[in-house]
Amino acid sequence: MNLSRQEFRQQIRQLRQQLSPQFQQQAGSQLAKQISNLPEILHADHIALYLSADGEIDTTPLIEWLWQQGKQVYLPVIHPFSKGHLLFLHYQADTEMVLNQYRILEPKLKQSLIKPVHQLDLVFTPLVGFDSTGHRLGMGGGYYDRTLAPWFHHQRGPKPIGLAHDCQHVSKLPIESWDVPLPKIVTPSKIWQWESHA
Fold first, then answer.
1. Is there a binding annotation on residue 14?
2. In this structure, is residue 198 part of a structural domain?
3. Which residues participate in substrate binding (predicted)?
């Protein structure tokens, strides 16, 4: 059965929205444990993450673990002037938060908190679905595709690592010519890796 990208999006979002709060909490803790084993995390000081919404895997345990390790955490903010682009702002427990146009919490825009993308070490990337070749299906806005273009095309800038529930994996997604697979995706039960030079 050949589903379109939109149908995949709908189906997987429904699946993850049905996960119970207890399941989410447990999955978030298991995810943090998996990430603590990543070699990349050792030398990464500046790490971009996101706050979970719409049934995404709970990133709270991971954010708290990173803080405990003395890592600097940054969250995406929709760029106020450059349409379809993201800024990343330093995030701490007392950061002032506001709702963006998608009703997702983000740090209140403050120039002093902005970290240029090329100065980040890792960007943990949200996704709706992923397949066995590392292709990622996003929400369709292209925000992360634009942010990570230097990595995808020239291996420059912060390394992207996808985060997902196990149920977000499908064997094959319909892909477009501009889609570039992620080098790594982490779920609560597995680290998927497609790097030729791992």
1. no
2. no
3. 51, 56
Question: What's the domain range around 104?
Answer: 5-193
Residue 97 labelled as part of a binding site: no
Q: Is 9 annotated as a binding residue?
A: yes
Report the phi/psi class of residue 184: left, alpha or beta, with left for phi > 0 and alpha for psi in -120 to 50: beta
| Model confidence, pTM | 0.94
143 marked ligand binding residue: yes
Q: How far apart are CA 71 and CA 64, in angstroms?
A: 10
pLDDT digit string (tens) for 18-37?
A: 999 999 999 999 999 999 99
Q: What is the CATH number of the domain that holds 186?
A: 3.40.50.10420
Report the SS3 class of residue 136.
strand
156 is in an annotated binding site: no
Q: Does the annotation place 70 within a ligand binding site?
A: no
Asked whether residue 148 carries a pLDDT value surpassing 70, the answer given is yes
